[in-house]
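Same chain as my last thread, 365 residues:
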Amino acid sequence: MQVPYVDLGGQWLAIKDRVIPKISEVLESGLYLEHPIINALEDRIANRLGVKFATSVNSGTDALILTLAALGVTRGDEVITVPNSFIASVAAIEHVGATTVFVDVGPDHLIDVEQIEQAVTPRTRAIMPVHLEGKMADMESINRIAKKHGLLIIEDAAQAFGSKFLNYQPGNLSDAACFSFHPLKNLNAAGDGGLVATNNNELIEKVNILKNHGQQSRNISHNFGFVSRLDSLQAAILNVKLDDLDSIIIQRRLNARRYQTNLSDCKIQMPIISSEVFHSYHLFVIEINDRDRIQKYLKNVGIETKIHYPTLISDQVAYTMKYPEKKWHLPTANDQCRRILSLPIHQNLSVSQIDYVLEHLRKLS
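reply #2:
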């Protein structure tokens, strides 16, 4: 049996009859970059998140960069974040000229809130929690720390569309939340895409200017900006997929429950989830000894897995070449990156495929 890690073709077959008319409508209109369907998507997402404003951009990375830039984070500023994310989280900080300050994570793979305050210095400008795997960090505690020290909060919510902490969604307890619509996300485009969500009108206006060449109006630019617009075709696809998001998350949570129920007595660390967190299961990440051997075995029997992420950002060449003198004490993150393994969790998995994964994992443990 083959168990693919993702099934984008299957996702397309499930929606193509609804998407093709929308795509045709966009193409016939000729409004490839400014069709009203883009604004409709932004309004729907803002309403769903419970924020006042949302603006779409070209990628989750651009969402972070543009938000940092619009909030005035720049050279000389420090941003506190975690090392166990995708490289884009720190790349955004570095691109605006700020300096990354790493803190360790907890057993749940999320930022260790107790370490944040210890990392605050007179140069600290912002905290960037990363909501990994579909789990939101403790935003109430992070919000209290930020208010105490007068800091900004920019949520890297690339993996957390549909997730909650208590009744809060990304963007509710921060200056802004930044999302990705990469094809592997729960709410996914057929290419790159991203979004900034906020209650700050001034911020959203600045992002809207920066993402479109810095233009105040046609041919009038007061700033040097970027080109970071979501195109109309991606918006058409995302509008249809947004209709299905709740059912997608329900299915992914059912798949996760089947894993958890049937592996509870094995020598495998299941995802650690706070009772305050609603997990949307962008990823299902276990921890297991001898991870590389087990991943190879699973591949040989047709089960595709991934590792998110095998190398900490603090150990990436891009970082160590720029900061060769920096040494960080990150014992929990270092231990986890040697043990983590992402199992298939997508909504197109059959029960027999999940049971096939379970059968082989139980053999190994």
